[in-house]
Specification:
The chain has one domain: Arp2/3 complex 21 kDa subunit ARPC3 (Orthogonal Bundle), CATH 1.10.1760. The longest helix is centred in the C-terminal third of the chain and has 26 residues. The chain has a two-stranded antiparallel sheet. The protein is an all-alpha fold. This is Proton-coupled thiamine transporter. Keywords: Membrane, Transmembrane, Transmembrane helix.
């Protein structure tokens, strides 16, 4: 590997570490809404931008690190880890798949470079990563958290309401930010040499 390649890899790793730290720091901002556990996960926004900027591999790795750190800092201490398998599914796996947003890295960059509006592509690929995250939470909710469902309510329906509601809430948050940040996408996503 040449020095340029090593320097570029170091820059990608450094950006990933900064984005992961930012996503963790955003976890300290209150983010539960309503009478249920529907959550705004503010860290999804910088992770989505990073995955679009650096691609699938970098996005998956940053998401994995974010999930492990979130589990160690918040999950275990708040009682959100019921057993090792559930903890693995809801933290490293669920946070890692947010990196699937990186599938859209090339199409979004191509659209931006051609001067086209990339908002639809950004929302589409972000929805893939966000949906994947909440799908794993949905599975864990139905399997492990079902005992906390209201009486006479199917645990799978309860998990769908909570995790589906969180997915929708985060997509609404992303849509608002995509509209607000539309003019700066080129600076956020396109890597300068």
């Amino acid at each position: 590997m040449t020095n340029v390649g090593k320097n570029n890899e170091l820059i990608v790793i450094t950006e990933g570490a900064i984005i992961t730290a930012l996503a963790l720091a955003l976890s300290f901002v209150p983010h539960t809404t309503g009478v249920s556990a529907i959550e705004f996960v503010y860290g999804l926004i910088p992770m989505a931008i990073y995955a679009l900027r650096r691609g699938l591999r970098a996005g998956l790795i940053a998401g994995l690190v974010w999930g492990i750190a979130d589990m160690l800092l918040f999950g275990i201490s708040k009682g959100s880890v019921l057993n090792p398998l559930q903890g693995f599914v809801e933290f490293p796996v669920a946070f890692c798949v947010v990196g699937l947003v990186g599938l859209g890295s090339k199409p979004v960059k191509d659209a931006i470079n051609r001067g086209k509006n990339a908002m639809g592509l950004i929302l589409f690929y972000s929805a893939i990563g966000f949906f994947a995250k909440y799908f794993f939470h949905f599975l864990a909710g139905g399997i492990y958290w079902g005992m906390y469902a209201p009486k006479n309510m199917n645990p799978w329906i309860y998990s769908l309401v909570i995790n589906g509601g969180s997915f929708v809430a985060n997509m609404i948050m992303l849509t608002v930010l995509v509209i607000v940040l539309n003019r700066v996408f080129k600076q956020l996503i396109i890597v300068k040499n």
